[in-house]
Amino acid sequence: MAKTIFAVIMAGGSGTRFWPASRESLPKQFLKVEGGHSLLRGTWSRLEGLVDPENILVVCGQRHADLVRESIPELGENNLILEPVGRNTLPCLALAQIAVREIDPDAIQIVLPADHIISSRDAFQQSMGTAIHAAQSGGLVTLGIPATSPATGYGYIQTGEPIEGVGEGKIWTVRQFIEKPDMARAQELLASGEFFWNSGIFVWTSSAFEAALERHAPELWRGLLGCAEGGLEEFMEGLSPLSVDVGILEKEEDCKVVGAEFHWSDVGSWPALDDVLPDAGAGNRCSGEGKLIAVNASNNVVHGPDGHVTALIGVEGLVVVHTEGASLVCSKEHAQDVRAVVKQVREQAPDRA
Amino acid sequence: MAKTIFAVIMAGGSGTRFWPASRESLPKQFLKVEGGHSLLRGTWSRLEGLVDPENILVVCGQRHADLVRESIPELGENNLILEPVGRNTLPCLALAQIAVREIDPDAIQIVLPADHIISSRDAFQQSMGTAIHAAQSGGLVTLGIPATSPATGYGYIQTGEPIEGVGEGKIWTVRQFIEKPDMARAQELLASGEFFWNSGIFVWTSSAFEAALERHAPELWRGLLGCAEGGLEEFMEGLSPLSVDVGILEKEEDCKVVGAEFHWSDVGSWPALDDVLPDAGAGNRCSGEGKLIAVNASNNVVHGPDGHVTALIGVEGLVVVHTEGASLVCSKEHAQDVRAVVKQVREQAPDRA
Predict the structure, then answer these.
(1) Higher model confidence: residue B288 or residue B55?
(2) Residues 6 or more apart whose Cβ sits within 8 Å of residue A352
(3) B153 and B297, same domain (yes or no)
(4) Which of B20, B314, B330 lies closest to A315 in CB terms?
(5) Which residues of A touch chain B, with CB atoms under 8 Å apart?
(6) Would you tell me how many other CB atoms lie within 10 Å of the CB of residue A190?
(7) Contact flag A314-B326 (C-beta cutoff 8 Å)
(8) How far apart are CA A101 and CA A225, in angstroms?
């Protein structure tokens, strides 16, 4: 009998790379970049037809509960899991595991970050189908993105043996996970042809994940189970942040990787919008509901509030973001310096950080 | 006996070169660029100690009366002259002449645009003193700015004979006025060493100006006088726009030019703010009350609302303007294309033009 499919959307992130549009009060997953919809909403919509909405859980921090409800008004009352404090993805997914096991200890879980952009729902669901198949025979399955450049911002996954049978040619055992490499190492990994990027999207059965938690993070897991009667906030505050990649997957023997067949971006910074937004002419991209007027201007990324007019004249390769209270103009090559700016803003104008 | 000194501030302009900060509803003279004060306010303050505030008249369009009152709350009720319709500087100054002659037909008038930036009040008042002296012996006096580049955006004034006596070495007869030249001609004029730029600041006695109006623009002058009982709006609507330079000065035999000893800018477009705003580090200039954070960014001009944070990263030589509803990012070399953008904005988002 087919197992019930659950999805856990991780909406707890709070990055600064999309300042000033994304701030502490409005993390990236709530940014409206896809035709006026937030990234979180896009993630929810991508599951339509694959996962019953009743079986989709969203995990986020207390302060962002209202933003989640605004993005997904139809989210069931009990389907929002609030983290008293964020400690990266392992505690987040362990909390979700507690919720899912109570409903259906035999479920399949799709686990996915709220802030990715994936162009085709059909292709996404097809790859998910393959991953669900792979997970049903046990182990932890990760979605791998075919590496197309020596990116240093992603983790890498080396393929081992191909898995025969259904999904053949799309599923491999994992030989090893590699943390974000430097440029020289990334070039080697790319050249070998044996590596995927780690998407951070996972599929597993509840029982497989619970067994892995018992094996590799028993203190965390038992501690969380022990908070059923209260004390969760205190317990989580005492935890060090730990990702599920480092805390579980890298230690687990039985891991598989499914090669994703969809176009994916984790939209790590403003220039990444180049890959996911439509060309508004001359390579310019305009996200949200802003309006762009370009004269002798090309290859710029623009983000503004609804109806805001941005005029670009004689400029190229810029990121231009306008919000109430703060603006950013940045060459694409310097997009990583946004973090340094946010640090300065925190010191000099904390309400704008 | 010394004549009473009047000042006429012309605040009727409505340019588009400072879009989006300056719009139809907020022309350049009301822009706050000098330490939070509007250019109009700066012009008013520059007259302090030289002209009794009771004798300062401001001319503007009906729709901007409130903005003038806001900039100069102490302006007397009868000191604001409203033009029913703008027809350039000649009708504007003829209207002012009618107001001044009623109060004091023997007055000296200083006539000046509201939208200049002049760095030193002392130097300004010293040059005005020289010009007042020159005007007292009759004729029309214009303030000339020593030409330092082959600018094509200004009119030029060729000096004739030096005037002996008080102010010697600073006053000349005018040989000719030359309209905005092309670049080749501007280079010739500059090389000859005989030319000033025409500042648009004039000094004359009421009687000299009235005589010149009678001589060179009798229809306009008599028509305006005939509107004492009404019909001014209709009469002015029938006029073609005409500048006092073309309509009077170029035709008048008895003109003098006084070489200005102050640092002057007519702030014709965004990049001109380079010359008048303090360096905020690395050649960046920040006008208004906005806040600038610059990382690897140099020689940019930034304008934003009070308290607005603008972050620049890895960019050079840009004009960056953010207002509620509209933003501009423009390379300084393309600043003249702002007009083309305003045209597009008028078509596509008229409330933002």
Answers:
(1) B55
(2) A20, A23, A325, A326, A345, B309
(3) no
(4) B330
(5) 19-20, 291, 293, 295-296, 304, 307-315, 318, 320, 322, 324-331, 333-335, 337-338, 340-341, 344-345, 348-349, 352
(6) 18
(7) no
(8) 11
Which CATH number fits the domain that encloses residue B196? 3.90.550.10
Structure tokens, B276 = 């008048």
Q: How close is the nearest chain A Cα to the Cα of B340, in Å?
A: 8
Q: Are residues A78 and A155 in the same domain?
A: yes
Total count of domains within chain B: 2
Q: What dihedral do alpha carbons B216, B218, B224, B225 form, nearest 10°?
A: 120
Q: Do A311 and B326 touch (CB under 8 A)?
A: yes
Say how far apart CA A143 and CA B342 lie, in whole Å: 48
- Phi/psi-derived region of residue B279, left when phi > 0, alpha when psi is between -120 and 50, beta in every other case: beta
Residue in B closest to A328 by C-alpha = B311
* Residue B144, H or E segment: strand B140-146
pLDDT in tens, A126-168: 999 999 999 999 999 999 999 999 988 899 999 999 999 888 8
Cα separation of B127 and B110, whole Å?
Answer: 12
Which structural domain range is residue B200 located in?
Answer: 5-265
Measured at the CA of B113, the angle between CA B111 and CA B115, to 5 degrees, comes to 155
Last residue of a domain, one of A239, A265, A291: A265
Query: What does the pLDDT read at residue A288?
Result: 67
CA A217 to each of CA A140, A198, A207, A248: distance values in angstroms, whole numbers, following the listed order: 15, 21, 15, 7
Same domain, B166 and B237: yes
Q: Is the dihedral of CA B70, B72, B78, B83 positive or negative?
A: negative
Same domain, B216 and B149: yes
Q: Which residue reads 């006695």 in tokens?
A: B205
Residues pairing with A304 in the sheet: A288
- Asked if A333's CB is within 8 angstroms of B314's CB, the reply is yes
**Do residues A238 and A293 both lie within one domain?**
no
Q: What is the pTM of this model?
A: 0.78
Q: Which residues of A232-261 are buried (b: 16+ CB within 10 A; e: fewer)?
A: beebbeebeebbbbbbbbbebeebbbbbbb
**Any bridge partners for residue B196, and if so which?**
B146, B157
Identify whether residues B316 and B257 lie together within a single domain. Answer: no
CB contact under 8 A, A320 and B329: yes
Q: Where are the alpha helices (DSSP H) in chain A?
A: 39-45, 65-71, 89-103, 121-136, 183-192, 206-216, 218-225, 232-237, 244, 338-348
Beta bridge partners of A197: A145, A156
d(CA A175, CA A181): 17
Residues A203 and A339 in one domain: no
pLDDT at B34: 67
pLDDT at B281: 93
Element (H, E) at B211: helix B206-216
> Which residues, 6 or more positions from A12, have their beta carbon under 8 angstroms from its beta carbon?
A59, A60, A61, A64, A83, A86, A92
Distance (Å, whole) CA B297 – CA B332: 14
Does residue A261 share a domain with residue A285? Answer: no
pLDDT, one tens digit per residue, over B291-306 is 899 999 999 999 988 8
Q: How far apart are CA B270 and CA B17, in angstroms?
A: 7
Asked whether the predicted pLDDT for residue A33 surpasses 80, the reply is: no
Q: What is the mean pLDDT of chain A?
A: 92
Q: Which residue among B241, B265, B289 closes a domain?
A: B265
Query: Looking at this protein, which amino acid is placed at residue A349?
Result: A
Give the minimum alpha-carbon distance from B341 to chain A in angstroms, rounded to a whole number. 7
- Over the stretch B133-153, which tens digit does the pLDDT of each residue have? 999 999 999 999 999 999 888
